[in-house]
Amino acid sequence: MALTGIQIFKLLPKTNCKECGVPTCLAFAMNLASSKTELDACPYVSEEARAQLAEASAPPIRPVALGKGVRAAKVGGETVLFRHEKTFFNPTMFAGIITSDTAEADVTTKINSWNALQYERVGLNLRPELVALKDVNGDGVAFASLAKLIAETSEFNLILMSESAEVIEGAVKTAGFKRPLIYAATADTADAFGKIALDNDLPLAIKADSIDDIIALSDKLTGMGLKDLVIDSGAREVKQALEDQVAIRRAALKDSNRSLGFPTITFPCEMATNIATEGLVASMFVAKYGGIVVMSDLTSEVIFPLLLERLNIFTDPQRPMTVTEGIFEIGNPDENSPVLVTTNFALTYFIVSGEIEASKVPTWLLIKDSEGLSVLTAWAAGKFGGDDVGAFVKKSGIMDKVKHTELIIPGYAAAIAGDVEEELEGWTITVGPREAAHIAGFLKNK
Predict the structure, then answer these.
(1) CB crowding 53-88: b at 16 or more within 10 Å, else e
(2) Please, which pLDDT band fits residue 4 given cuts at 50, 70 and 90?
(3) pLDDT of residue 316
C-alpha cells in the first residue's frame, strides 16, 4: 500500500538540505507520495529507510530512459488513466524504421530527411526521436555498422530490432553508448537478451502473445535484476492492440500489478497497408497509451499532426498553453518596421502572427507574459495594464532594434493607451484593430 506524505517524512533524515531540489524534507515527502519525484533524489536517506520506502514510493508505471543527447527522453512514469485527472508527463516517442539491408548512403539520406522534420510550436521544437533499425537478413556485421552510423552521425536514438541475440550483441558494441532499446526478448530468448541488457545497463523490450505471457516474461526478467522494460503485447490487430493498451494501463494503475507496470511499444507499421492509415492508428496509440509508436516511415504530412496531437495531450489541461515572453521577428523586420505588442496566450500569438505573415509586412511582435490569458481577460485581470506593458517594452530590448517610437497595442486594450504613453515618454501609442482578422489590412495601410 502506498505511504502518505507524513509516513514517508518520518523515514527521511529531516536535514532540509535542499539537495533534492525542494526546500524541505516534508515537501520532498509530499512529492514522493504523489509520484512527482524518486527516492534516489535524496542523497542522505538511510539504507533501512530506503528499503522501507523503495517499494511504496515507486511509481505504478516505471519511467524508462531511452537514448542519449538532445533527443533523449523518458517513457512511462504515468500515474493516472485520464488526462483530466492529472497531467501526463512523458510524451509518446515516435520512431521510423530502417532495415539492415539498406545501403549506408541511403541511410544517410533518410536520416537527413528525417532531421528536417522539426516544427516550432508555442516556443517548443517538435520532432521525432527514434530510429528503429530492423534486422531483416541476420547479417550482424551490416546491422552493427548501420547502428554505429546512425548513433555517431545523427541526433536520433535507436531501437535495435532483431530475433538474434548475437546480432543485437554486435550492435550494442558499436552503438551501446547511445543507450538503445533492445527489441525484443521472448520466452525463448529471454535469458540471452536479458543478459545483454543487464551487462550493458540497457532498456529491454519484451514480447509475447498474450498479457498473461507478458506477466510471466516480465517476472522472469525482473527476477534477473532488470528494471527498465518496455512491453509489446504482441497484438497486431487494431482492436485487440487497443484493448491490450487499456488493460495494461488499468492493471498497473488500478490493480497495482507490478509485472505490467512498464511503458509500452506499439507498431502501427504492422497494422496498416499505407502510411495514411498508419497515421490514424498511431494517433489512437498516442491517446491510448503507447509509450513508443513505430512507423514504417516518417513523412511530414503524417508526423506533423501526430506531433501536434502529442503536444496537446501531454500538456497540463489546467494551465493554458503559452508562448515565451520576448521579441518575435516576423518577415525579417528592420529598424523601420512596425512594433506590435500582445499577450502570451498561445492561441492569441498564433492568430496574430498568422495575420502579420499574411500582410507581408515585416513586423516586430512583442509578447508580454500575461500568465496565458487573452488580451481582454488579461486586461480585466490586471495582467496587461499600461504601466506593465510600458515597463515590458523598456526592458524587452526593442528600443535597440528600431529607430522609430511607435507602439501598436491591441484594440481590446485601448483603455491602457494613456498609461502606456506615460510610461514610454516620447512614444506614440497607436490603437490597433480589435479583431485579429483586420491586422493585415491595418498594417498594409500603414
Answers:
(1) beebbbbbbbbbebbeeebebbbbbbbeeebeebbb
(2) confident
(3) 77
Amino acid at 441: G
With the C-alpha atoms ordered 283, 286, 287, 288, is the resulting torsion angle positive or negative? Answer: positive
Return residue ranges of the chain for CATH 3.20.20.20: 64-313
Asked if 205 contacts 231 with a C-beta cutoff of 8 angstroms, the reply is yes
Whole-number Å distance between alpha carbons of 46 and 56: 16
Q: Is the pLDDT of residue 297 over 50?
A: yes
**C-alpha grid cell for residue 190?**
529471454
For residue range 23-41, list pLDDT tens digits in order: 999 999 888 877 678 788 8
In this structure, are residues 184 and 192 in contact, taking their beta carbons and an 8 Å threshold?
no
Nearest of 330, 341, 361, 350 to residue 443 by alpha carbon: 361
Query: What cell numbers appear for 66 in the block?
Result: 531511452
- Residue 272, classed as helix, strand or coil, is coil
- Cell numbers 491586422 correspond to what residue? 439
Neighbours of 324 (CB within 10 A): 12
CATH fold of 5-57 reads 3-methyladenine DNA Glycosylase II; Chain A, domain 3 (1.10.15)
Give the integer Cα–Cα distance in Å for 285 and 283. Answer: 5
pLDDT in tens, 172-187: 999 999 999 999 999 9
The CATH 3.40.50.11600 domain(s) of the chain lie at: 326-445
DSSP characters over 280-329: HHHHHHHHTT-SEEEES---HHHHHHHHHHHHHHTS-TTS--B--SEEEE
DSSP state of 101: T
Rounded to whole angstroms, how far apart are CA atoms 407 and 421? 9
Helix (H) or strand (E) run with residue 434 in it: none
In CATH, 64-313 is 3.20.20.20 = yes
Instruction: Show Cβ contacts of residue 116 under 8 Å, excluding neighbours closer than 6 positions.
Output: none
Please say whether the beta carbons of 146 and 100 come within 8 A.
yes
Written in H, E and C, the secondary structure of 164-215 is CHHHHHHHHHHHHHHCCEEEEECCCCHHHHHHHHHHHCCCEEEECCCHHHHH
What is the C-alpha separation between 163 and 134, in angstroms, rounded? Answer: 10
Cell 539504507, residue?
A: 47
Give the N- to C-terminal CA distance of the chain in Å, as an integer: 67
Q: What stretch(es) of the chain map to CATH 1.10.15.40?
A: 5-57
Out of 1.10.3720.10, 3.10.180.10, 3.40.50.11600, 3.90.550.10, the CATH code matching 326-445 is 3.40.50.11600
Helix (H) or strand (E) holding 104: helix 104-115
